[in-house]
Each structure stands twice: as C-alpha cells, then as structure tokens.
Specification:
11 strands; Class_I_gatase-like; 7-stranded mixed sheet; C56_PfpI-like; DJ-1/PfpI; alpha/beta; DJ-1/PfpI family protein
C-alpha cells in the first residue's frame, strides 16, 4: 500500500491549489485523500488577476467529491498534510475537527504544505508561532498576529512546513514539498 497524504479543503477552495498538489502527489506515487466538512461533492473556485481590479476575481471552478468527512479522518493513517487556499480556510480554521487533525500532524512533526490562504488554518491552531511562512500577501498582518514571520517567497521551507503565496508558485512549492517528502516520508 502506498503512503497516504491528506488534503483538507472545502467549498470555495481555489481549484488549482487543490488539483495541482493532488495530481502531483499521485504522480509521485502517493495515495491522496481529500477531506471536507462532509463527504459530498465540493464546489471549487477560480481566482484570477484581472487588469484594473484592486483584488483578484472569483468564478465558479470544478467540482470534486470529498473522499471523507473531517470527523472520519485518522491522522495516523497519513504521512503528510496539504492545506490549499481559496476562501475555504476562512471557515475551516474554526472547525474543531480541522483543528484536531492539524494539531496531530504538527505534534508528530509530519510534512505540511500550505499555500495562499491555507496558513489561516495553521495560524488558528497556533502551529506557526515562531516559524517563517509564505502566504497570500494580504495575510501578512494575520501571519504576524499569529506569531510567525511572513516571507514573500514561492517556496518557503521551515522544518517540515513548506509554504507559498498562491498558485503561480506551484512549481517551486511542490518541488520543495516533494523533496521533503522523499526525505521524511518516501513512497516505498
């Protein structure tokens, strides 16, 4: 059986930030499960940068079925965790089951990849205090309030945490995460 990686997400997650790591990690030989508040078909979104807009735009993206509900996640079954961005982390960070899952990964020092708004979840659990992390640039005050150092970078590695700003950083972000996985949780 292949090593398993968990992706925590929900409705309004950024499509690219779910599918890119999902497919890249499958390609690497890992089994990947997507967990959500309930086991249902999720509606992802597409965030894009349009000239003349002060912020990104949001359009409906792909749909995809969640493999399991948060309450059914046993963190011991997984070697690593991925936290995509989009708007989903804004509400997922307050879910006690998400907090339970993330705390278990952090306590076991398992590899964790987060991108864009994903750090809102680890910030909420206190897991980024004293660490360096990238995030969507608008989250710099949130990162500081959570006791972490904001880094405006495409693949920031701090121990077992690999972070990036947004989907344009995918190649560097996943390259760094896969390198870490090969060291800490290789496919056997």
């Amino acid at each position: 059986m292949a090593a398993k990686i968990l992706i925590i997400t929900g409705d309004a997650a950024e499509s690219l930030e779910v599918f890119y790591p999902y497919q890249r990690l499958l390609e690497e030989g890992y089994e990947v499960d997507i967990a959500a508040p309930t086991k249902k078909t999720l509606q992802f979104v597409v965030h894009d940068f349009v000239p003349g807009y002060d912020t990104y735009t949001e359009k409906a993206g792909y749909t995809w079925p969640a493999d399991l509900a948060f309450e059914d996640v046993d963190p011991a079954q997984y070697v690593a965790l991925v936290l995509p961005g989009g708007r989903a982390p804004e509400y997922l960070r307050n879910d006690p089951q998400v907090q339970r899952i993330v705390a278990a990964f952090v306590e076991e020092d398992k590899p964790l990849a987060q991108i864009c708004h994903g750090p809102l979840i680890t910030l909420r659990t206190g897991s980024l205090a004293g660490r360096r992390t990238a995030a969507y640039p608008a989250l710099e005050p949130d990162v500081a309030a959570g006791g972490a150092d904001f880094v405006d970078g495409d693949a920031v590695v701090d121990g077992v945490v690999v972070s990036a700003r947004a989907w344009p950083d995918h190649p560097s972000w996943m390259r760094a995460f896969v390198k870490l996985l090969r060291e800490k949780a290789p496919v056997e």
